[in-house]
User: Fold these one by one.
Assistant:
Number 1:
Amino acid sequence: MGARGTEIIQLANAPALAERAGEELLARAARAIADHGAFRIALSGGSTPRVVYAWLAEQAQRADFAHWHVFFGDERCVPPDHADSNFRMAHQVWLARGLVPAGQVHRIRGELDAFKAATEYERELALAFGTRDAPRFDVVLLGLGTDGHTASRCPDCSALAETRSFVASTWVEKLGAHRVTLTLRAINAAHCAMFLVAGSDKADALGAVFGGADVPASRVRPWDGELLWLVDRAAASGLLNDD
Ligand code: 6PG
């Protein structure tokens, strides 16, 4: 079964993209909470989603954050207070406000050895989702690297070959760093994979994905879920218009 639906929505610019992403998340959260009492989201790192998290922090009156469960799609192997930490970024602009109960924020412990952190997080997902089968996130937020990577599934890294686990540790040669990442098996189990792509520097990568190139991001196709691309006009400049 392929992705229930692939949709690409073009926004004028990065602020408009962030607001639309926030509204999409609030709507999906309301549906998920009404349906099964919780909204489980895996956050992306990087600069694009940071604006979305800051937007969410201002929506305390509209969001039922008490029923949100926040996970991370990947993490750099650094302590949580390190400038490169994805957790630190989301915590600074949103989670520090305590709107989401602390016990419902599931950090990847980047301060550990990468393999140990990945193994621990796999266990944490099994506990949080109550199953050793694939954790089915309501939304997995994803960014797109200029080389077509997403989460920490980078070209030529070992995480791409992982077909059994839901969390993998990987060495990223280009960065000279270890990372911990959800694997494709976990990402494609999501009810919705939502890409946030802004900026002209992403135009080639986005064009490659939609042009059929086999880059890591191209493999994201939830087997029973939605695939939603939120892109700004600058990033979409490399896409041929249908009409
Ligand atoms: C990370 C992200 C990574 C990111 C892309 C795009 O930990 O860095 O998971 O995959 O989403 O590199 O990053 P920007 O949105 O900052 O361009």
Note: The chain has a mean pLDDT of 95.
Number 2:
Amino acid sequence: MKLFAGNSNRSLAGHICNYLDIQLGKANVRRFADQEIFIEILENVRGEDCFILQSTSYPANDHLMELLIMMDALRRASARRITAVLPYFGYARQDRKPGPRTPISAKVVANLITTAGADRILTLDLHAAQIQGFFDIPTDNLFAVPVLARDVKENYALENVMVVSPDVGGVVRARALAKRLDSMLAIVDKRRDRPGESEVMNVIGDVKGKDCLLIDDIIDSGGTLCNAAEALLAKGATSVTAYITHGVLSGGAVSRITSSKLKELVITDSIEPTSAVKTAHNIRVVSVAELVGEAIQRTALEKSVSSLFD
Ligand code: R5P
């Protein structure tokens, strides 16, 4: 088994190699002057079971292209099997047509990855579980909830905790965390009655005096999270912390979080944290290296990975 990595998340690749006690596969990933990507695999992969770790995070298109080209290089070098390991699958939010004459970009990206040579996909907290069906190859969608729940147990007094979904779409994910923590569940229900009117945040559940834990798959601009936090505090929550798998954190999101009333934002390293994230006083990163590493190991050994979903 060999693990290679593009440039998106070298530190996670390093942690996974430590967990697996292997060396990262040698590859040269570089740019021509016009920014075309060039990749050279620097070791023999003939007949090998190859894994490529690459999150299609910012810059999403460059990282996607690196993944596609690396798969092609491995395929042409006679790798026996190629698993694309995508701790963060970008484009996942474009999983349906939002209006007439619009694309389903998540499906386009799934097609590209398959066509470039992936035999399997290993990913984490897909924005919508049914995106697995966009791939016609085996796709394992790991859940970060066990990692997040362990962190909550280590850092919070559970008797006062209330798990909160920041929108109606995230209730299944929030329920999974609440079940693990044996805690109650609340929901922030965003409504805009008419176009142009401002959004009204209704909180379903009594959060007064509770330490609220918001859980979501993605934080991008931070708008969803900060608005939900405001709504919970306005309803009397004692504190609001957020657990979010993928820290996309575009634009001014980090400063929005640092100047918000959030006690803490906990994200995973599915996307490589920027230096702004690392130095933010109320953002903490927990690693999914063991989870992803274990899934890679079990895939290589043809063992079940389903216990990792529990
Ligand atoms: C939406 O369905 C997702 O689960 C996230 O809530 C959303 O992507 C967060 O985006 P932002 O941080 O820009 O509000």
Note: The CA atoms of residues 266 and 284 lie 5 Å apart.
